[in-house]
Amino acid sequence: MRRLAPLLVAGFVLAACGGSGHKAGSTTTTDSSAADRAQITSAYEQFFSAKTPLTDRIAVLENGPKFKTVVQGFASNPLAKNVTATVSSVRLEGPNTAKVVYKVKFAGSSLPTETGTAVRQNGTWKVGDASLCKLIALQGSTPPACKP
Fold first, then answer.
1. pTM of this prediction exceeds 0.70
2. What DSSP assignment string belongs to 59-102?
3. Which of 64, 74, 118, 133 is least surrounded by Cβ atoms within 10 Å, i.e. has the fewest?
């Protein structure tokens, strides 16, 4: 699995997610929370989908423009065509942050279950850039965009 991790990570970033439409919340906390969870799940699934255009992947990533070259670099990797993600849970931790448990799958294999973040920027839930940096670190290096 350790040898497969760099391939999965490369494919993951390349297949990074695309834009998700902001869903209007309802007047009740429960409905609003459900809408937030649905938008977060959608953002993660789109970010990891090879069918999502590069500009949309960058759009649903927290501080996406900062990571443009990272996402573009992985976008040229043919392995990314087989990457998907499945979200198993979302826990809201405040009005603008959430904990996300997900699994990245690649050509019949998968990385271990990961815990990431989602953040609300300008009213839209996005994949936390810390989640991307954590996955990239699995291959043994981190790009400058991941450094504070």
1. yes
2. HTBTTGGGGHHHHHHHHT-GGGGGEEEEEEEEEE-SSSEEEEEE
3. 133
